């Protein structure tokens, strides 16, 4: 097991900056705004050949009894319970505060081994800036600068000195990554907690509770998944705060990084244009899709019929391939079918499509319905092969393919989708005009006499030299 290092401290002391430094990533949002991080954020780090797990937490307010600060404190306490060692981060420029003393007392009660790191000490004498923090009684403070990397390796070395050296085992990244996306306050975080069976992320009745994209690994029925809880996507005109703009970017990146996206809709409100825009972006990104209509248990039969007709009218482009689930994330109703649908969509997105079968399917489709003429000629579709996955890409070779209309391309997409049972994933088709490279490779090179004969035929015609 990798040692687990948990970063704890009050708001805006640089925990997320240190998290990004330790993981050599930009996974955690960083801004000069208190309370930006709210949920537990896990990442992998390495010091030389020694791997470790690092956990970022929100600003710790142990005395909070209600509201979002209380929920953040609960997340931090859960992280401390999981810790092998706690890195208590304080701000060297603002000095020792009453809140630091409260956090230190809470850490002493936890019984976890704690190292005190005084951050933002670049350009300052270490002995001077750390002097007052001895009052916390947590041992020798370590002066660091997370932003500049000063003494960070020394801090990690000190944290890992009591753990045995274990080489990192190569991790196979072949499991589904599932992004949970949708508008604000539709129940994304509640759905994540229901799927995990624990209060892993903060689910609060307030739009904008989730600000960062939280990656969570878990196992179900012997299979590994990664859930990505994301911030809600509002219309561009309503996104004004800088933090929300960063959150939107992280959500869009999460969609790009995922294999399957679960789009969550609010069943108690009509399907909005923003829902359609989000679905369109998912398809443009080429990601497999499962649609979940949440808060279904609070609707009567008439309201359910209305929302189903609304989906058919505003999201018709999802009807052909995406699976629909009507759920209650809060009570767990209907959620058992989500992961099986994710498995189906993931299998379709990563499917291997044999070239001979693709070509036979293409020729059968052309024989059944030839492409329409373009002027005096008709496009000729000769053979097909797979050009990629996630989403599946089918490359079709032939002549005059730039004249194939969109309607015929959709006909081919539906034909391939039915033939290979590609449910839950978009399918892309690319046309390439030119000769068959496989046929050219199999053709024997011409002898000198045959080359001269071919040249004379091209120059003087077939009748004289046929």
From TrEMBL:
Spell out the residue ranges making up region: Disordered: 433-466
Q: What PROSITE patterns does this protein's entry cite?
A: G_ENGA
UniProt binding sites for GTP 1: 9-16, 56-60, 119-122
Q: Any idea which positions bind GTP 2?
A: 182-189, 229-233, 294-297
- Enumerate composition-biased segments (Basic residues): 453-466
Q: Which residues form the EngA-type G domain?
A: 3-167, 176-350
The protein's matches in InterPro entries, at most eight in alphabetical order, are given as: AAA+_ATPase (IPR003593), G_ENGA (IPR031166), GTP-bd (IPR006073), GTPase_Der (IPR016484), KH_dom-like (IPR032859), KH_dom-like_a/b (IPR015946), P-loop_NTPase (IPR027417), Small_GTP-bd (IPR005225)
Q: Does the record bear Endoplasmic reticulum in its keywords?
A: no
Is Repeat one of the keywords? yes
Tell me which UniProt keywords the record has, alphabetically: GTP-binding, Nucleotide-binding, Repeat, Ribosome biogenesis
The record's section on SUPFAM superfamilies has:
P-loop containing nucleoside triphosphate hydrolases
Query: Which Gene Ontology molecular function entries are recorded, alphabetically?
Result: GTP binding; ribosome binding
Where in the sequence does UniProt note compositional bias of the Basic and acidic residues kind? 433-443
Where would you find the membrane-spanning parts of this chain?
none
Q: HAMAP family, per this entry?
A: GTPase_Der
Q: What function does this protein fulfil? A: GTPase that plays an essential role in the late steps of ribosome biogenesis.
Q: Which family does it belong to?
A: Belongs to the TRAFAC class TrmE-Era-EngA-EngB-Septin-like GTPase superfamily. EngA (Der) GTPase family.
Task: State how it assembles.
Answer: Associates with the 50S ribosomal subunit.
What is the name attached to this protein's record?
GTPase Der
Q: What is the lineage of its organism?
A: Bacteria, Pseudomonadati, Pseudomonadota, Betaproteobacteria, Nitrosomonadales
